[in-house]
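Propose amino acids for all 262 sites.
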């Protein structure tokens, strides 16, 4: 029977796998015995998948997915492995398992869609940057990454920018400890209505300046001093009806001038 939930160390797995690979090589693919032997080999060598997954440090949310794609790589390696060529299975399978996991991270775990070229650049940059930090105790500069990776300066810059699209932060994520802490959304700025008003004022200012003095005074009393039409009429010595007609005509003149400018 296949090993179910058995804990087998790498050395024991290697010793048990050798005769099974020899037997699998003799069997016809698709037969019940072939499937039985291959399934046993998969269970014996799952330690390689778990070891490869730990290297990539997946988050708990995708840990099972990483194990699944790593197992696919293991199965592909078992299917292609030829024990008669004298290679160790572990050395043969490790690149295939790691390749499947890398492809999973490259194609499915990015929060923002970026071209594959930039994903490949990001992976290369990350690998070289980690190795450099371990050697030198600091992060590498762009020029040092160009030298280490063989990429152009533009490719390095684009790859570093692309790395920012790998993960996102929820706007509801707290930025301060405690239940009453502000969220990221609370700290984001909004549109300032005064900015739009400033644009309007800059546009309308020369039009107002071109009006006769009485119309300018009329606008100031109505919109700056918030006076009623009756109060304006009393101030200027004209009727409230005349004030209304002057306001209507003046505002129409300003609207026509704004329409010409836009």
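Proposal:
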């Amino acid at each position: 029977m296949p090993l179910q939930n058995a804990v087998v160390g790498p050395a024991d797995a290697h010793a048990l796998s050798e005769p099974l690979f020899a037997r699998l090589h003799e069997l016809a693919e698709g037969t019940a015995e072939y499937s039985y032997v291959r399934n046993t080999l998969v269970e014996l060598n799952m330690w390689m998948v778990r070891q490869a997954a730990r290297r990539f440090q997946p988050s708990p949310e995708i840990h099972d997915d990483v194990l699944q794609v790593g197992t696919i790589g293991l199965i592909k390696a078992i299917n292609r492995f030829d024990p008669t060529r004298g290679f160790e299975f572990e050395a043969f399978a490790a690149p295939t398992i790691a390749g499947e996991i890398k492809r999973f991270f490259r194609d499915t775990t990015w929060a923002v869609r970026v071209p594959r070229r930039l994903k490949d650049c990001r992976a290369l940059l990350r690998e070289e940057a980690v190795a450099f930090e371990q050697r030198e105790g600091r992060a590498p500069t762009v020029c040092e990454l160009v030298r280490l990776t063989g990429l152009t300066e533009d490719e390095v810059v684009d790859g570093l920018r692309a790395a920012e699209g790998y993960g996102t932060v929820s706007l509801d994520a707290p930025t301060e400890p405690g239940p009453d802490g502000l969220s990221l959304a609370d700290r984001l700025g909004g549109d300032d209505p005064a900015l739009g008003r400033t644009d309007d004022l800059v546009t309308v200012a020369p039009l107002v300046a071109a009006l006769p003095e009485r119309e300018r005074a009329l606008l100031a009393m109505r919109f700056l001093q918030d006076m009623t039409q009756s109060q304006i009429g009393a101030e200027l010595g004209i009727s409230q009806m005349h004030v209304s007609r002057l306001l209507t005509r003046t505002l129409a003149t300003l609207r026509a001038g704004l329409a010409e400018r836009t």
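The two ends are 82 Å apart (CA to CA). The first helix runs from residue 10 to 26.
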